[in-house]
Design goal:
Layout lengths: L1 E2 L7 H9 L4 E2 L1 H11 L4 E4 L6 H12 L9 E4 L3 H14 L7 E4 L5 H8 L5 E4 L1 H9 L10 E5 L1 H4 L2 H12 L6 E6 L4 H9 L5 E4 L10 E7 L5 H12 L4 E4 L3 H13 L4 E4 L5 H12 L5 E4 L14 E4 L6 H8 L9 E7 L4 H11 L4 E2 L5 H22 L4 H12 L2 H12 L91
Parallel strand pairs: 3-8, 3-9, 4-6, 4-7, 5-6, 7-8, 10-15, 10-16, 11-13, 11-14, 12-13, 14-15
Antiparallel strand pairs: 1-2
Helix pairs in contact: 2-3, 3-4, 6-8, 10-15, 13-14, 15-17
The chain binds adenosine-5'-triphosphate and magnesium ion (MG).
Adenosine-5'-triphosphate binds next to strand 2 and helix 3.
Keywords: ATP-binding, Cytoplasm, Helicase, Hydrolase, Nucleotide-binding, RNA-binding, Stress response
EC number: 3.6.4.13
Protein name: DEAD-box ATP-dependent RNA helicase CshA
């Protein structure tokens, strides 16, 4: 463990770091900060929630010359929410050095951004779409940029973003330093990355598994039409303080958020079709505990650091193992513990195995709770609430009322009635969600090893996006959907040994945001 004071960082940055409450550097910070401060290009890979933002943020802030009025660093992030969050963290890191920083992202009035750009920011954090927009309008001058950072690099180098990133790269001097960070870095993507880096140092924090140990991982097998009732019961048993439920599409997210509200949960949805103001207000409500359940597409899967997320539910199993890693990584951050539950329909079991093979971690099967167990969960909450009130010991007049009652009734009956009246009986209001097409069954690959057919990791995502006609969202929003259903051999249940199920990793265009 290295203390930040041993890392040779300036007094002003050290002061900011300490104000943020950081003492010891996390392994990825320890492993990358020195290399990056020496000017090396760095590919940094470490598990979710382990401090990658400061790992690239500290050396970047250190390098900024506050007397130079030009933009010296550009940080690109895949979503608006992440761009905002990263800029907040970098602002704190550069607070004592007084680094001027600006975030630019879609959905925010461009005129305002153009005016703010005139105040000579030295660091820009943005989403690819909006950065390109400013480059095209000539409102963003990047010819003095010395540090280029891609947060969630693998996501950004995926087909959906590669064209935008390439164009942005053309505006940034080739002699810049490049830093790339993510919790996942599939081989083919790393190859693309290396093409525009100079002799990068690769820092991969070794761990047995790709996901952090402190997240308990479960899966629950359920038919599509049963999933919602099972989710409700699990929620009643788990009683999550703060949970994220991931759905596959925007429609799914809308329906799930509404259905959960009907059943009495404090839930709201977030996805790329909502206005930026709505997206921000939903996140704010979630962060301030005004809602307990955030229902989201993958727009919330990457990088978001919301403290206190106790549970992640993959209502729809994600298509890629990488997406799984990022989604569940919204819990169990900075050493806290978390629980992740993934719903899987019988025909999607192949996907579960691919996820497990990638993360090197088996998920534990969870038996769907019965409605009785769900009721017990709610009763337990009532008892906890009641006990808390008793412990507070400020019952005053209520004690007089209680003795009046005890003259008429048995104590045990009075307490039972109190528990009953405080128990939120599980709501079984019938809910019908639109059927979500299950992921196509995985085609089994003949003969093990062999070559990777059909585009590998990149798959065919480009089909879902064109570089023109960008919508309000910063990502592709095409609804081309996946319709191919391989008819070849498939195995929807078999030995969970992971040895037979490596199939081609063809992806369908994503349409979630
Ligand atoms: N050295 C440190 N000591 C204590 N807390 C830290 C330290 N570094 C970062 N943190 C905190 O840990 C949390 C997670 O950090 P961060 O968001 O950078 O993780 P990440 O590795 O980028 O995760 P993801 O892969 O999900 O993007 C943040 O709240 C951050 O402020
Ligand atoms: Mg991050």
């Amino acid at each position: 463990m290295t203390n930040f004071s041993e890392l040779n960082i300036s007094a002003s940055t050290l002061k900011s770091v300490q104000r943020m409450g950081f003492e010891e550097a996390t392994p990825i910070q320890e492993g990358t900060i020195t290399h990056a401060m020496e000017g090396r290009d760095v590919i940094g890979q470490a598990q979710t929630g382990t401090g990658k933002t400061a790992a690239f943020g500290i050396p970047m802030i250190e390098k900024v010359d506050t007397k130079n009025p030009n933009i010296q660093a550009l940080i690109i992030a895949p979503t608006r929410e992440l761009a905002i969050q990263v800029s907040e963290e970098l602002y704190k890191l550069g607070y004592d050095k007084k680094v001027r920083l600006l975030s630019v992202y879609g959905g925010q009035e461009i005129g305002r951004q153009i005016r703010a750009l005139k105040n000579k920011p030295q660091v820009i954090v943005g989403t690819p779409g909006r950065i390109l927009d400013h480059i095209n309008r000539r409102t963003l001058k990047l010819d003095q940029v010395q540090t280029l950072i891609l947060d969630e690099a693998d996501e950004m180098l995926n087909m959906g973003f590669i064209e935008d990133i390439n164009k942005i790269l053309e505006s940034v001097p080739p002699e810049r330093q490049t830093l790339l960070f993510s919790a996942t870095m599939p081989g083919p993507i790393r190859k693309i990355a290396e093409k525009f880096m100079k002799d990068p140092v690769e820092v991969k924090i070794k761990s047995k598994e790709m996901t952090v140990e402190n997240i308990e991982q479960f899966y629950v097998k359920a038919h599509e039409r049963e999933k919602f009732d099972v989710l409700s019961r699990i929620l009643n048993v788990h009683q999550p303080e703060l949970a994220i439920v991931f759905g596959r599409t925007k429609r799914r997210v809308d329906e799930l958020a509404q259905a959960l509200s009907i059943r009495g949960y404090l839930a709201e949805g977030i996805h790329g079709d909502l206005s930026q103001a709505k997206r921000m207000s939903v996140l704010k409500q979630f962060k301030s505990n005004k809602i307990d359940i955030l229902v989201a597409t993958d727009v919330a899967a990457r990088g978001l650091d919301i403290s206190g997320v106790t549970h992640v539910y993959n209502f729809d199993i994600p298509q890629d193992p990488e997406s799984y890693v990022h989604r569940i990584g919204r819990t169990g951050r900075a050493g806290k513990s978390g629980i992740a539950v993934t719903f899987v329909t019988p025909r999607e079991m192949g996907y579960l195995r691919i996820v497990e093979d990638t993360t090197k971690k088996r998920m534990t099967a969870l038996t769907p709770p019965s409605s009785d167990e769900a009721l017990v969960g709610q009763q337990r909450v009532a008892i906890e609430n009641l006990s808390e009130i008793v412990n507070k010991n400020d019952l005053g007049d209520y004690r007089t009322l209680a003795s009046e009652m005890l003259e008429k009734f048995e104590a045990i009956d009075v307490i039972a009635a109190a528990i009953k009246s405080m128990t939120k009986e599980p709501d079984a209001t019938p809910i019908a969600l639109s059927e979500e097409r299950p992921l196509p069954a995985r085609r089994e690959r003949s003969g093990g090893g062999g070559s990777r057919s059909g585009g590998g990791y990149k798959g065919n995502r480009s089909g879902g996006r064109s570089s023109s006609g960008r919508s309000g969202s910063d990502r592709g929003s095409s609804r081309t959907g996946s319709s191919s259903r391989p008819s070849g051999a498939r195995r929807s249940s078999g030995p969970r040994d992971g040895s037979t199920q490596r199939s081609t990793r063809t992806r369908s265009p994503r349409n979630e945001n």
